[in-house]
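Title: Request for sanity check on Cytochrome b561 and DOMON domain-containing protein prediction

Description:
We are preparing a figure and want to confirm that the structure record we downloaded matches what your pipeline produces today. Could someone re-run it with the sequence below and paste the raw structure tokens into this thread? We only need the token string, no images.
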Amino acid sequence: MSPSFLLLLLFLLGFTTTPATTRCTTATFIKTYQKCVTLPTQGASLAWTYHPFNATLDLAFSGTFISPSGWVAWGLNPDSPAMTGAHALVAFPDPSSGGLLLLPFVLDPSVRIQNAPLVSRPFGLRLLSSSAVLRDSRSPSDGSAVLIFATLWLSPNHTRVHHVWNRGLYVQGRSPTIHPTAPSDLASRATIDAASTAAETAPQAPDALRSAHAALNAASWGLLLPAGVAVARYLGHRASRGPSWLYAHAATQIAGLLLGTAGFAIGIVMGNRPRGAEHRLHRGLGVAAFVTAALQSAALLFQPKATNRFRKYWKSYHHLVGYGCAVVGVANVFQGFDVMGLGRSYWKLAYCLALSTLAGVCVALEVNSWVVFCRNAEEEEETTTTTTREGDSMEGGRASSSQKQGLSL
């Protein structure tokens, strides 16, 4: 195992996230509320007063911008603690005046992929009033605090409310773009009882568990298994090296499979925990990579002998499944970076550098293989041509001697 690989593994394992923590307050510069709670992500908080005589909820959500051109949103989901189906109030800078706008949106299932820009729609719930103000500045900037005020009418005896909130980097016109996908962003939801202050938040997998999952899978599916494929392709045809290439190929693949199995098991444990988002593509690619690796391992038990007529079909299957496993594994590593919110991070850069190094070595070996192949083909053609000429000259000599003997007779 190379030192650079160990360095990358330690580099990835060292990733941890430190959640921002703030203390809630019931007092704002506009009014004072009866209760407050610190929300579990993004340093957000919520203050409110519930009026049981008319079932109205008066609240103030506190959040922060992460970009001068970004947005901050708070909303309610009438059915479940999830972003899909929520009715949200989104605050962002007015592109024409530079002031603060607050528009209502309904987040239907298409918001996950956002093929088209979001269009403002009525809140949909019984919203009596709403407004938004910046707390410490005149215009939004990175880190600016914003307060979103709202007054709603709740159904009698239904005081458990599903709150959702989030923030993003950009607004296109008057349409907020997709927010970051770090675990804390995907878990931005809480169910709070307005009467008793009982809160149910979205539990997240421990940072160490996510880091181990990321590091093991990046090292195994993303590096070791492709390296094993490269060993078999570029060293297997060299008979002068004997069976050493086979041992190197098997050792690399076994190490990658063991680490990948451990990472896959951690992923299953994380997947069984309650969570705020379904990473279906990431999960599907992970299952596909693990299944193809298992098929490769099972195929070794049924490997025909070299003289068997089915050997060529087994080799085609082995090559096809092996390449497919490597491609799916690398694609899922990149998908995992996006799921963890590391799409533009040094962790992804380190992996890209390691993968680029491996790809560069493969390109150099591929070019060398073609040069050797073309040289051998040319030498073989010259040998064949020389042999043919020698044969023709010998036949010509024999024919001339026969003619001479005929003339002498």
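Thanks, this matches our download. The first strand starts at residue 35 and ends at 38.
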